[in-house]
Amino acid sequence: MVRHRMETIGSQQIWSYLGDSEELTATSNTAIRKSAGTFVSDYLDLARRMAALQFRNRDYVLMFRGQSGDHLNRSRNTTLKPTIARPSGSSRPDYVHRFEILRRAEDLLVERYSATGYQGVDRLRRQRILRWAILQHYEVCPTPLLDVTHSLRIAASFAADQDADQGYLFALGLPNLSGAITASAEAGLQVVRLSSVCPPEAVRPHVQEGYLLGEYPDLDRAEQKNLYPAYEIDFGLRLIAKFRFEPRRFWPNSRNFPPVPRAALYPTSADDPLRRMGDQIRDLLPGF
Q1: pLDDT, tens digit, for every residue of 139-193?
Q2: What residue numbers bound the domain in which 114 lies?
Q3: Is 244:174 a contact under the CB 8 Å cutoff?
């Protein structure tokens, strides 16, 4: 299989905010990743900036990810790695062990999904990316995918989820989307729309307006992952803007735009049977 490296955003000109400037400027992905992030005071400030960002970068679809921290690589660039590629402390990821766990989780998912009679089991059996999407979104085990959302408010709520002193909101530029799964050989990306691949009984994907990002074509073996430098397995390559805010002031200042409560972001297993299934599968897996 021919390997297409994930394309760094900005082969075409991109516009973004650097520092605390009020104005958009033509810049590069590297400059954005190295920046401290643009400070926003409230949700409306964030939304207005995002509107300008989308208008000036009309060739991209913007997706968002909220975190309580800005994780940096050795070059001091923002890194947004899929869970399977994240280091264990200071050690390189043990891909052999993690892919063994992932394959076991996939088998259990198909087995239990089939037993429930949920719709879409044939697609789940045939398409590995769909199995990975469910396992990642329900945090069953590490996968080669990264969670993002189409909702700015959902992402901002995740950024403040842990009541941290600082919240970060990352905007990623993606190719145009089409259907449940979009694969772009040119960008080296796959984008999965969760609401289209999960059964109607699954609540969390709809509440979170969730999408998953993956490499294209996907690498499904440890031997393949070990052939590529760590910097190539990083969705920070698609970063188009970085924002930061103080959650304790950001939401009170936002008045008419309150955060989405944690209970709404994470429906209980009683309300979401797919979460219950994920919890059961996780209990059967060895340690990561």
Answers
A1: 999 999 999 999 999 999 999 865 678 999 999 999 999 889 999 988 899 999 9
A2: 14-283
A3: no
Residue 125 is assigned to a structural domain of this protein: yes
The pLDDT assigned to 23 comes to: 94
Q: Which whole-number Å values give the CA distances from 270 to 103, 203, 262, 267, 277, in the listed order?
A: 27, 11, 16, 8, 11
Pull the structure tokens for residue 82: 């899929």
On whether residue 7 sits in a domain, the answer given is no
Contact predicate 272/65, CB 8 Å? no
Please indicate, yes or no, if residue 5 is contained in any of the structural domains.
Answer: no
Q: What digits encode the pLDDT tens for the residues 49-65?
A: 999 999 999 999 999 99
Q: What is the total count of domains within the chain?
A: 1
| Rg of the chain in Å (alpha carbons) | 19
**Which token pair is 145?**
């995918």
Residue 165 in contact with residue 246, Cβ under 8 Å? yes
Are 174 and 192 in contact by the 8 Å Cβ rule? The answer is no
Residue 2: inside a domain, yes or no?
A: no
